Amino acid sequence: MTVALFVPCYIDQLYPDVAIATLELLERLGVDVAYPDGQTCCGQPMANTGCEADTAPVARRLVDLFADFEAVVCPSGSCVSMVRNHYGAYFDADDARFQHVTSKTYELCEYLHDVVAVTHLDVKFPHRVSLHQSCHGLRELRLGQSSESMTPRENKVRKLLNLVEGIEWVEPDRPDDCCGFGGTFAVNEADVSAEMGRARIADHCGKGSEVLASADMSCLMHLQGLIRREKNPIQVMHVAQILSGRPLGAT
Amino acid sequence: MLPIIQHPAAAKEFVNDPNRSRWHDQALWFVRSKRDKQAASLPEWEYLRETASGIKTHTIANLSHYLQEFERNATARGAIVHWARDAEHHNEIVLRILQDHKTHRIVKSKSMLTEECGLNHYLEDNGIDVVDTDLGERIVQLRGETPSHIVLPAIHIKKEEVGDTFHTHLGTDEGASDPKYLAEAARGHLRDKFLAGEIGITGVNFAIAETGGLVVCTNEGNADLGTSLPRVHIACMGIEKLLPRQRDLGVFTRLLARSATGQPITSYTSHFNGPRDENSELHIVLVDNGRSRLRESETFRAAMHCIRCGACMNTCPVYRRSGGHSYRATVPGPIGSVLSPTRDQNSYKSLPYACSLCGSCSDVCPVKIPLHHQLLAWRGELVGKKLLPVSKRLAMRFASYLFRFPALFRMVGKVGRFTLRVLPRWATHHRLNTWTIARELPEAPKETFRDWHRRHRDH
Ligand code: SF4
Q1: 3-class DSSP state for residue B33?
Q2: Which of A5, A11, A14 to mutate to test the interface with B (most CBs of B within 10 A)?
Q3: What is the mean pLDDT of chain B?
Q4: Do A190 and A215 fall into the same domain?
Q5: Domain count for chain A
Q6: pLDDT confidence of B459, banded at 50, 70, 90?
Q7: In whole angstroms, what is the distance from residue A115 CA to residue A109 CA?
Q8: Of B21, B322, B396, the CB nearest to A49
Q9: If you count Cβ atoms within 10 Å of the first and of the last residue's Cβ in chain B, which end, N or C, has fewer?
Q10: Rounded to two decimals, what is the model's pTM?
């Protein structure tokens, strides 16, 4: 039984180390991982813009590519939410291959927590870390409890990071305010997007965090862009990089 | 036809004034935090939301039945019920009542419906003196503005600015900004207005089919003051304000105040069951104004659940940064961005995009409207109607090809990354590249993950 690794377009092109760390981590935990060739994107940019006709063929390609695997694992919450919560519009409800892929696509932390049930990791990361909860991970995949909701939920990302030795947690004032990326929103509404991002950075930085960690690299891409422009004393890292034992500053 | 609103442009000034935008954000976050504490204090919070949503779904599904029941019972109590197709019709009905009573001065408690119908302007154009008695609403009225929030109409105005406004209009001391002093001055000013008001107009928070009664919730008691002196009370309500039974009310009053301002209950929850006495009149104007059309839409029908608590605005990170006026709509924020395009798709087409799809509004909404999913659904509708600019549609068409043909994707990626690495900074970071106005571009790696995988894993 083999799980397929889904590496979203922007991670493949811009943050290969996030994918490498994901692969190495899964392999180290004994998961048999394949990387099907020909994968590109989940179709989210088009879907979020409302261009459904342009999304459909991309969604169908992805399902074709992954349907023969036991499960699909992806280090990006928003891409997983796209497949799980928004692909329904592009398939017949009784399409077995679609049903298989949509129900067996996991966000990395979710897979490690729910399926592999990791209890031990032999890695250290002796730094002050704060967690940026991505909105799609939180409110669409329910990887943790959003601050608005009163339904208790475990924070899966945090539970995994707690297996790493030496992390000193830093708590921002607002645990889950949006960073302002939002896909094409970042370009469409550039001013509001940037202001939202600056506020997140100020919150984390102001509490003395050295590393802004997230399970969604897309949020981090936007935040990193702002951090570099404003020369803020904080770095971003994907959770997969920390869990796989990368040193500070791997992104 | 309305002018087309471009939210990014309308938001620019507000968001790029860091003092104002940050202070606005803090003020609303404070309200949301109060709401969180209140919600957390009720173990049954999520159950209440579920129940409220169920009641609303049922009511909207059987709306004509409950409206008729309401009309029967309200009439039996001596109220006079009017039906208004749209905003204009509503305004005419109100004016006619005022003219029948030869009234020239009215006091009005805050009502989003009359705001939606543009009643103030209409009445003023017809020679009627309109005084908004809600403090925030009075402030924006004196400034010649419109409310920027449905619960906190003057949230965008700083207390120093209120001081200036009151100095000009009410003769308070110049430079005074003490909220207590200003509120006292406003109270004195409004007291005179209350005494002079000949007819009181209020909105309605809930109407109950079973009893024919109305409920109005305020924190300043102005609805009561505005209706207890005048002999005539006109209550204006959207047809979606209905609840079937008296006992449903508790579910909603518990959710409303907590969601709106983080109070366990509004200071005044006033019940009106028919006219006060035989010398008084109670007119109830039931307004459709597009609601029946909204009800026909499967995708957006749940938006009729809205109880106008404003929680989605307080939590919305875009609203908090850009301010309510950037939506150029009576109801701003997430729910406004769902409702406005139902009025006029072309004019409000940028609003469904004024959202990062963070989903906070859907989780905060006390009646469980899936707001962010509706905003996404709106985008699909707008694209289907070709209301998205061609440049954006073409960009997405191009992206779609890119992602359908992996060889093309790899080639374009390679060129892109190469360009990013070799081009001087000025060629990639300029004002035409919207991303880079405030941010740096990512550093392009030499190798993609796929290339790495080929070298290390494919044998
Ligand atoms: S949509 Fe929900 S949260 Fe927003 S104002 Fe209406 S009831 Fe309140």
Answers
A1: helix
A2: A14
A3: 94
A4: yes
A5: 2
A6: low
A7: 10
A8: B396
A9: C
A10: 0.96
